[in-house]
Amino acid sequence: MSINDELLLDLGNTRLKWAWRFPAPGARLLSALTHAVPNKTSAVWDALFLEVRPQKVWLASVAGTHTDDLIIEINQRWGCEVIRVCTPAQFAGWTNSYEAPERLGVDRFLAMLGALDLAANSSLCVAMAGTALTIDVLDARGIHQGGLIVPGPSLMRASLHRATAELPSVSTSSVSLGRSTADAIGAGSVRACTALIAAVAQDFPAAKLIISGGAAAELESGLDALTPLFIEDLVLRGLCFYAGCIVSQNA
Q1: Which of 77, 84, 115, 120 has its CA 20 to 30 A from that of 188?
Q2: Going from the N-terminus, what domains does the chain have, and what CATH number goes with each?
Q3: In 49-207, at which residue ranges do the beta strands (DSSP E only) sit?
Q4: Which of 69, 107, 117, 233 is catalytic?
Q5: φ, ψ of residue 124 in degrees (nearest 5)
Q6: pLDDT tens track for 31-47
Q7: Would residue 69 show up in a list of annotated catalytic residues for this protein?
Q8: Where are the alpha helices (DSSP H) in 24-92?
């Protein structure tokens, strides 16, 4: 089996991202689609299955029952091996801090693994901005120091709309003070996230700040002073590194 026969899949709460497994510098984000839609059917996955049939799929998922839906579709359409990644207690120089290691989200594990692959032997602050905003800190030995989870900017805006009688549904954001209710919600959601990231970065000044996720672009201008490293496909990079380690161990 050649390395290009293996497909990496990152199934999040809102999007499915995929890339073929390549040698260094890691995974390349090829495409993404939104799957969190009402009355989801197999047609939602059609864009994925336009890809050439792989021999093996490496799957990281935090999407609950959508995971089973996707595995069924892979089995029916491609009939190839699916390896679903679970969070371990230790892996390739990374150490989990959770008392129940498997309870740490696999996306957070792989994001940290991807960050370690980019900046080994450094303390790291890894922020993943998506449906949720997660922030995890690693020391220079790769030991997870713990993390934080809050709603991401889009979920903050959506929750205000759902939980109140008059606040509007807002899809745009900025860092400027709002002069309308919609602008105030948009700016507030971004500033809340950037302020939390900045606070953690201040607590760990030696840590390199790495940011990824579908909402990372919303936060970028509010974090310029921290000179973060923005990586579009950090979970996929971690998944690529994980797959390489497993293949080497089994060789």
Answers
A1: 115
A2: 3-84 (3.30.420.40), 90-236 (3.30.420.40)
A3: 56-61, 81-84, 90-91, 94-95, 124-129, 132-138, 144-151
A4: 107
A5: -135, 145
A6: 778 776 545 566 778 88
A7: no
A8: 65-77
